[in-house]
Design a protein that fits this description.
- There is one protein chain.
- 44% of the residues lie in helices and 15% in strands.
- The chain has 340 residues and is α/β, with parallel strands linked by helices.
- Helix 3 packs across helix 11 and helix 12 crosses helix 13.
- About 9% of the residues have low confidence.
- The strands form two sheets. Strands 2-1-3-10-4 form a five-stranded mixed sheet, with helices on both faces.
- It starts with a helix and ends in an 8-residue tail after the last helix.
Length: 340
């Protein structure tokens, strides 16, 4: 969940990897060229790098793999866990063809000339917000005053909190900020802090299962400018320019996978659990049920992105001096490869 720390710490690596990616990408080139086996359909080998440990944000990818949707589109897809080099770095450098990213990181990357492009919104609306145990009595942003917040040290955290608190005449300087590192949310709020930034689909659902009720303050309840796409599926400009049919095939199959997850959350959850058996089964199943209606939300189709959402968030970043300059949002995302 500590996305902004990753974003801010790796942009330099992104740039350097992008510069050298085209000269040291034998594996990527082979993947894009495709391989065939005698008597079988020729499949193009590609990889998709996750942004985090496997969870229900990724279910559609695992469904597309298990149900053969990728193969039907002529693809042999390898799902890769992120390592020291995350999804954005690998995709930008051409070391992987696709990745799970965020509107936040793509916006920051494009300011630095890193050619990442969002090709589908995994979830239509931002499901993150500030969470706290109910006994802390934090029910609105004004209640942040005098409380301790556990985060990961990114400037965007204070900016987001400040913008919400200002709407209620509260002062962010009265919040105590600490770095919670890798501490589990439930441990941290019992020991060190009062509230933290979470994604309800995972940590919020876990709170339900643990019988530990929380108050949730969603960013989207206070401003449309923070209703950005998180997460998204991403590729790079070179893939779009040179392998558009592969991009189309990948997005088509992923769309089928997420559509299946929307319509069959129980079976989709089991597919994820079969692929990653170490996951908490009750959490996966309940999270999958919660997300089923939220993948597409009020959009006309799964994955669709709106220009105004990209512009709203970019303008918010600019207003809070968190972005060096404006980007051309039309180059940052595309709906072109979504199935009709």
């Amino acid at each position: 969940m500590k996305k902004w720390l990753i974003i801010l710490c790796t942009l330099t690596l992104l740039i350097s990897m992008t510069a050298c990616g085209n000269t040291n990408n034998e594996k990527g080139d082979a993947a894009q060229d495709g391989n065939s086996t005698a008597g079988e359909q020729e499949l193009t080998k590609v990889s998709v790098v996750l942004d985090w440990s496997p969870n229900t944000n990724h279910t559609g990818l695992y469904v597309a793999q298990a149900k053969g949707y990728f193969k039907e589109q002529g693809l042999d897809v390898e799902i890769i866990l992120p390592g020291e080099a995350g999804a954005d770095q690998l995709v930008a450098a051409g070391k992987a063809q696709f990745g799970v990213s965020y509107q936040e990181s793509i916006t920051q990357a494009r300011v630095q000339g890193v050619p990442l492009v969002s090709i589908a919104a995994v979830i239509q609306h931002n499901t993150s917000g500030f969470a706290s145990p109910v006994e802390k009595n934090i029910t609105s942003p004004k209640d942040f005053e005098g409380k301790t917040y556990g985060g990961w040290g990114s400037p965007v955290e204070e900016a987001v909190m400040s913008s919400l608190m200002q709407l209620e005449g509260a002062d962010v300087s009265k919040v105590n900020f600490i770095n919670m590192g890798d501490t589990d949310f439930f441990t941290a709020v019992k020991r060190d802090l009062d509230f933290a930034w979470i994604f309800y689909a995972w940590t919020g659902i876990e709170a339900e299962l643990r019988g530990e009720p929380i108050n949730m303050i969603y960013l989207t309840d206070y401003t449309d400018k923070l209703d950005y796409y998180t997460p998204v599926l991403a590729t790079n400009e070179s893939m779009i320019a040179d392998n558009a049919e592969t991009v189309k095939a990948f997005v088509t199959a992923a769309s089928q996978g997420y559509q299946f997850a929307m319509e069959n959350p129980d079976e989709a959850a089991q597919i994820l659990l079969d692929a990653v058996p170490d996951l908490d089964a009750p959490l996966v199943k309940k999270s999958q049920e919660w997300l089923a209606s939220r993948y597409q939300g009020d959009a006309p189709r799964w994955g669709e992105q709106k220009q105004e959402v990209w512009e709203n968030y970019m303008n918010w970043l600019l207003e809070h001096d968190l972005l060096e300059k404006a980007i051309d949002v039309d180059q940052a995302f595309t709906n072109e490869y979504l199935p009709e």
